Amino acid sequence: MTSVGSVDKNFETAAVEQGCRMLFLPENCSFLGLAFSESLAVAEPLEGPTMQRYRQLAADSGLWLSVGGFQERGPDPEHLYNCHVVINASGRIQASYRKIHLFDNSVPNGPVLMESRFTAAGERLVACDSPAGRLGLSVCYDLRFPELYQRLTYELGAQVLLVPSAFTVATGRAHWEVLLRARAIETQTYVIAAAQAGQHNAKRESYGHSLIIDPWGEVVGRLQDPLATGIAVADVDLGLLQQIRCRMPVAEHRRLGRLAVHRDFEIL
């Protein structure tokens, strides 16, 4: 998607069917404005009218939806939550995850983005079952913290890791695909990364390149035009996932997750 500063226009773009069981939307799919204050102004509780429209869309279409990044009303007037919401085909909220890692950075030759100025960090890992398998939820900048995905996989049983994003162009060119493929390979899961793409407004541009990656690290779904609005389609084969995990039982070989941390040591 190329989301803009209009909830109505973004909603119309998202309401598309291609005969799939589940549709995954990127971070900021409902709104992406010029200023932090605009995001705070449109923030709503999960029971509010914008999320209700997505819930109705899921029920009307019979699709599960991953609403990859929604401006949820936060703990105080100055902060919102960047909330990833999964809605089932009956229109009920199945799970919600508040982004844990906030992007505070000055991008070389790009924008200065200080997410913590207006966003409160989440504190809870979230996974849920779906027609695509057991989903591990994350958002964008979380991608740079592999321990989050390790815990989603080995502690919460994730088979599909979701990384809805609005990556900057500079960081996307350098790191987007290699990080996504690494997360898939090291956890032996599918990775589905719906991405914002193109010029949103005078200040924001996103890298695009939405990807679906299998547990062997192969890209099995992408748009022909990586900056276009569209839908990449792929099958999730949980049989393949099990074959890969059986042939290379990484979960059984893990040791660091079982070792105690000792803080008393000698500096040589």
TrEMBL record:
Report whether Acetylation shows up as a keyword of the record.
no
The CN hydrolase domain, residue ranges:
1-238
Matching SUPFAM superfamilies, A to Z?
A: Carbon-nitrogen hydrolase
GO terms assigned for molecular function:
hydrolase activity, acting on carbon-nitrogen (but not peptide) bonds, in linear amides
InterPro entries attached here? Answer: C-N_Hydrolase, C-N_Hydrolase_sf, Nit1/2_C-N_Hydrolase
Q: Matching CDD domains, A to Z?
A: nit
UniProt keywords (A-Z) are: Hydrolase
In Swiss-Prot or TrEMBL terms, this protein is called CN hydrolase domain-containing protein
Q: Which organism is it from?
A: Chlorella variabilis
The major lineage groups are: Eukaryota, Viridiplantae, Chlorophyta, core chlorophytes, Trebouxiophyceae
